[in-house]
Amino acid sequence: MQKLEVFGANKLKGQIKISGSKNASLPILAATLLSRKKVYLKNLPRVRDIETMVSLLQSLGSKINFNKNNLTIDNKKQNKNFASYSLVKTMRAGILVLGPLLAKFGRAKVSLPGGCAIGTRPVDIHLDALSKLGVKYKIIQGYVHAKAPKGLIGGKIKFSKISVGATENLIIAASFAKGTTVLSNCAIEPEIKDLVNFLKSMGCNIKWISKRSVKIEGVSEVNEITYPVMFDRIEAGTYLVAAAVTEGNLKIKNIIPKIIQTEINTLKKIGAKIRVKKDEIHIVGNKKIKSINIKTAPYPGFPTDLQAQIMVLLCKANKQSLIKEDIFENRFMHVAELNRMGAKILTNGNKAKVSGNIRFEAAELMATDLRASVSLILAALTAKGKSVINRIYHLDRGYENIEKKLKKVGAKIRRVN
């Protein structure tokens, strides 16, 4: 099994180009199932979750050519509606094929999803919403058996809580439903806006009618399309924190700064010096890091996917900080490993008290999920000596070429078997 060795106490300096967004690519890939024509996608990240989704689409009959970061999909002969556990078990995004398969075939059998062990990710919000479009379903032996006897029929749906995945699934499904669908209490993450832009480019009729409401007029066919996926805002945020925590000096390129304004404002409050240009951010880390209280929230709030990374930075703040995790109930698994490195973090339910003024010590570590993995790298980058991070397969699910990118800006890091 592979692991990472990190030799710490270096300031990161240079430029990092941000990859395409994993969390935008996955629903867009699922949405390609609606098309019988060719779809050309650009700027996809080469990470394991994308490779898994590509394999899932191929198992459904899609013909796919993946060349570097560009992908061609031909669904002319795509005719299967069964998504197996073996492919869906490693990522929660597998459930996103349910909506387009029902829209296309009127029936689907899709495994319940897996992914990181950071809390329950119930699909009941997806299923409850789909049932309002005329879907009948049963869950048998870990599979959703769903059918729409009369096809999908538009309706009014208010999500019981804000859910990124359910919003994506329903926007895709409703694009091919008969008549008009209005979805309210939607998630409005930039990746959802990117999915909507992709579907509109294909010829779907979708319009935002208020901040969290979208109106969709169903269509029956879509056009051939070339589409570039947006940048990965979580990867961008991770490298911004890396600059701040190592007192580094980085230019983060290939981004749209206004999309990550919350993260920029948070880092400025903590003490980082940040200059914003059209498609890049220049960040210089400060020796003096200020404490801050943060709570995670749906976009445009502070993202749960950056909670572990910002916690590492707050371990170096001048006073105690408080983090409240309001999205996932089991997302403090990195705390035990950070405490082994010398951090003083106390958790109580969904709150973490983070003592400041600590120096991380090198240690052998165990990654527990995707974002926890990268938080351990950030801590190790500031610790004197060699840290070893095990179970980095989590990391490979969502970060493209992380060692290469970090090495280019002065990190001493290597992958070993």
List keywords for this structure.
UDP-n-acetylglucosamine1-carboxyvinyl-transferase, Chain, 2 domains, single chain, 4-stranded mixed sheet, 24 strands, 14 helices, alpha/beta, 417 residues
In words, what does this structure look like?
The radius of gyration is 22 Å and the shape is elongated. A hairpin with a 3-residue loop joins strand 16 (273-276) and strand 17. The strands form 6 sheets. A 4-stranded mixed beta sheet has the order 22-23-1-24. Strands 2-15-17-16 form a 4-stranded mixed beta sheet. It has 417 residues and is α/β, with parallel strands linked by helices. Helix 5 (124-131) packs parallel to helix 6 (164-174). It contains 14 helices and 24 strands. It folds into 2 domains: 3-19 and 231-416, Enolpyruvate transferase domain (UDP-n-acetylglucosamine1-carboxyvinyl-transferase, Chain, Alpha-beta prism), CATH 3.65.10; 22-228, Enolpyruvate transferase domain (UDP-n-acetylglucosamine1-carboxyvinyl-transferase, Chain). Mean pLDDT is 95; it is low at 116-120. The longest helix has 13 residues, at 190-202. It has helices at residues 22-31, 48-59, 85-88, 98-105, 124-131, 164-174, 190-202, 233-245, 261-270, 307-314, 334-340, 370-382, 393-396, 402-408; strands spanning 3-7, 13-17, 38-42, 63-67, 70-74, 82-83, 107-111, 136-140, 143-147, 156-158, 180-184, 205-210, 213-217, 225-228, 249-253, 273-276, 280-284, 293-295, 321-324, 345-348, 351-354, 364-366, 386-390, 412-416.
